[in-house]
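User: Need the bound-state model for nicotinamide-adenine-dinucleotide:
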Amino acid sequence: MQRITIAKGDGIGPEIMDATLLILNAAGANLAYDEIEVGEKVYLSGNTAGIAPESWDVIRKNKVFLKAPITTPQGGGYKSLNVTTRKFLGLYANVRPCKSFDPYVRTKHPHMDVVIVRENEEDLYAGIEHQQTDEVVQCLKLISKAGCAKIVRYAFEYARQQGRKKVTCFTKDNIMKQTDGLFHQVFNEIAVEYPEIENEHWIVDIGAAKLADTPEAFDVIVMPNLYGDILSDVAAQIAGSVGLAGSSNIGEECSMFEAIHGSAPRRAGQNMANPSGLLQGAILMLLHLGKADVAEKIQNAWLTTLEDGIHTYDIFKEGTSKEKVGTHEFALAVIERLGKQPKQLKPIVYGENKPMQLPSYKRSSPAPKAQIGVDIFVHWNGSNPNELAAAIQKDVTLFPLKMITNRGIKVWPDGFKETYCTDHWRCRFQVSDGSSIGANEVIQLLKQFQTASLEVIKTENLYTFNGKPAFSLGQGQ
Ligand code: NAD
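Assistant: Bound-state model below.
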């Protein structure tokens, strides 16, 4: 018997969890449950993480966690339990199937069946932000080869396991050539290992527009964290299934499954809430555990319940719906239909899916690396870049100043007077004779900036890897 951890959460959480477990047990999921407490009560007891330290032990022992939504108390100081869980447990993949159930659930896209696979740990979500000048703040966008390889491989393995035909990658690598460029490059490298699955890449803006307009054109879409955060909500919304969708958060060791909606406190304790989102999360969990037969039985019973018009208040519609039921009665209706196949909606066939065996990421040997320059960022309150260049050139003599940019746009030499400049300036020093520099040269440069009474706020080294420059040019350089 597989032992999993459950948390009933807050608001409607306990009701929808009870309904979900009732269905899992009736369908023969053969699971044993260890319950832990997370959410509002734990937060309000003074624990800002929303989870007791001993609960982590239970989650880590069982490795599989089914979590009902929680309420994050109003006011500052409380850490998002979801973000903490993802980061602590290394849950790098967020998977959200977005499917329409027309005509039972209202949607403009009756044939939509898209799975969004979102990178879950890095990108702008590393939370590394700094104010550097009066006018400029910065958020670091960190993308790693390991992060890209893990999520892209997961997307292809998921497509293979689920019999899906195509994996699409969304990035903005025409602008972010290093970060999104790496994601796209890793996608291309891994895609060739899956010749039976079609692959394609879209720039995220037009890709998002196409997704919103013609979602039938997509199958599995993999993307970095921020785009995935936004577009997984767009996809769920246009499928009509925000209240019905589940998602999984997958790591190398542990995984967490949940509904995508929140704790709906206004509906709590009234036996009204729709348990379908959490049930869909539980179906993803069964697939992850390799229990495709049980997942298929529950999914088809659930589809049959939908098309029989047995609906909770949130999807009840005069005409299509036949009976308005509560949370518990909805669960009983699904149980009654276990073993049945839907007639209008397409029955689900998961086939014989085995637990995915993902190879762990292996770091490749380091490439030859050389430092050929440095970007020195200064806080300077002037407005004319020619004056800044003159001030630098008077005292900073170790290397010639190559360019100055302001918010990435080249303003010296040959800048445009129309370019708006803030108080945040990047001054680039780069050797061009094939030699390299090191920490000593950077320190000397910094001392010369001090002599020039210019305030350095940070430096970024300019490297080549395998002899190729690995940094962006200034716009207009
Ligand atoms: P919500 O998803 O709880 O509710 C939005 C709307 O959808 C409400 O009208 C609600 O009644 C309805 N709704 C949601 N789930 C439903 C269901 N299963 N059946 C029927 N109707 C349903 O979003 P919110 O109101 O913005 O947030 C409420 C709380 O949930 C907040 O404290 C928020 O922080 C938390 N939240 C938690 C999670 C999570 O734990 N994963 C996710 C999102 C929000």
